[in-house]
Amino acid sequence: MSKNFDVIVIGGGPGGYIAAIRAAQLGFNVACIDEWKNAKGGPALGGTCTNVGCIPSKALLQSSEHFDQASHHFADHGISVSGLEMDVAKMIARKDIVVKQNNDGIQYLFKKNKVTFFHGRGTFVAAKDGGYELTVGEESLVGKHVIVATGSNARALPGTPFDEELVLSNDGALRVGAVPKKLGLIGSGVIGLEMGSVWRRLGSEVTILEGLPTFLGAVDEQIAKEAKKAFDKQGLKINLGVKVGEIKTGKKGVNIAYTDAKGEAQSLDVDKLIVSIGRVPNTIGLGADAVGLALDERGAIVVDGDCKTNLPNVWAIGDVVRGPMLAHKAEEEGVAVAERIAGQHGHVNFNTVPWVIYTNPEIAWVGQTEQQLKGAGRAYKAGTFPFLANGRARALGDTTGMVKMLADATTDEILGVHIVGPQASELIAECVMAMEFRASAEDIARICHAHPSLSESTKEAALAVDKRTLNF
């Protein structure tokens, strides 16, 4: 006997669980299917983000940041520390507690919003009764609408699968039991830089191999250069323009043969290797063929601008479709799809989706980079303000970086904001809101910001667009 629902969501990550909750708020009878398991085999809602991505990585980054501060910066404040040690097992245990709190929080939200949860893999069986039949283990479900939010998986190097002991994906990188003496990373993207930062702070000798000739090519070039200077100073070894060759694993660790940017053969021996070369859409076991759900050449589900697939009343959101693989992008698409099902006009503006790298210094941006504006031939004005000239940053003891604002040369509309420095992940929110309301740089420059605060640097960057900074 099938169980019938108005909306069935496949996937309980940020996109899926948010879509399920919003659909329930709109009065639909909703089910959510998710197969993540915790250590005891029970449900672990939250997807990659909560279990092996955003949340646990931030927990480890925070722990390692505390250790780094105690090791190198407390003395500047008159705080003496002796016998400092890092208990890696306890750090990992704390991370696991943070993850569980988030898992449990989503289960609570499902109960609060009357979302029916099924633990297992959701698979399409056939179109049925004006909707779609799916199976979850022994259960049979029928939904009028189906939202696919199955996320993504880490991309492995050809011929070098993840064993999660020596060759690690983001999953294994979050479960390392002791500080590796030497750690290698392939890929200098978000995951690579964040995990590299964690273990460098705790004492690892970290070497990053990046195939591209430029560092953080998607980031504004001026900001990327500022960030790399900081990472070089910290001791992260970042090798650009390399071509990775054979990778061998053995009892003593991992050997990576590669060609450097000069074309010279090199060899790197490490205790652990993290591979961070991107992610691929996850449609494993979905049963797309059973109902004719269209996939593209990358394996992503094909959708239009409203997240509609080629099948009536089947939608897809998040990492499994086009667009940036970001948890908050998935959340916004989840809300928008639920509202579209209800006949409303859900809205997602890709131009104002913020990006963040949670290193130290943090890197955050929204909108277009200077190189993109130059490439498009758009006339613009730029203003920058260094944290070195910000009173709150001086008091924090963290004056690395700057705020950079780009505005249209004629209308003064803000086209992009790029930040490298303390709490960039929080500072970018004001800029996202400003761009969503199509504010001008002058609007930000005229708004009163608290003193002393890091946010004054945003105001000063806006003033700099008109060449009238007050504190630099």
UniProtKB/TrEMBL annotation:
<dbReference type="InterPro" id="IPR050151">
    <property type="entry name" value="Class-I_Pyr_Nuc-Dis_Oxidored"/>
</dbReference>
<dbReference type="Pfam" id="PF07992">
    <property type="entry name" value="Pyr_redox_2"/>
</dbReference>
<keyword id="KW-0285">Flavoprotein</keyword>
<dbReference type="GO" id="GO:0004148">
    <property type="term" value="F:dihydrolipoyl dehydrogenase (NADH) activity"/>
</dbReference>
<protein>
    <recommendedName>
        <fullName>Dihydrolipoyl dehydrogenase</fullName>
        <ecNumber>1.8.1.4</ecNumber>
    </recommendedName>
</protein>
<keyword id="KW-0560">Oxidoreductase</keyword>
<feature type="domain" description="FAD/NAD(P)-binding">
    <location>
        <begin position="5"/>
        <end position="334"/>
    </location>
</feature>
<keyword id="KW-0520">NAD</keyword>
<dbReference type="Pfam" id="PF02852">
    <property type="entry name" value="Pyr_redox_dim"/>
</dbReference>
<dbReference type="InterPro" id="IPR023753">
    <property type="entry name" value="FAD/NAD-binding_dom"/>
</dbReference>
<feature type="domain" description="Pyridine nucleotide-disulphide oxidoreductase dimerisation">
    <location>
        <begin position="353"/>
        <end position="462"/>
    </location>
</feature>
<keyword id="KW-0676">Redox-active center</keyword>
<keyword id="KW-0274">FAD</keyword>
<dbReference type="InterPro" id="IPR016156">
    <property type="entry name" value="FAD/NAD-linked_Rdtase_dimer_sf"/>
</dbReference>
<dbReference type="InterPro" id="IPR036188">
    <property type="entry name" value="FAD/NAD-bd_sf"/>
</dbReference>
<comment type="similarity">
    <text>Belongs to the class-I pyridine nucleotide-disulfide oxidoreductase family.</text>
</comment>
<keyword id="KW-0963">Cytoplasm</keyword>
<dbReference type="InterPro" id="IPR001100">
    <property type="entry name" value="Pyr_nuc-diS_OxRdtase"/>
</dbReference>
<dbReference type="InterPro" id="IPR006258">
    <property type="entry name" value="Lipoamide_DH"/>
</dbReference>
<dbReference type="InterPro" id="IPR004099">
    <property type="entry name" value="Pyr_nucl-diS_OxRdtase_dimer"/>
</dbReference>
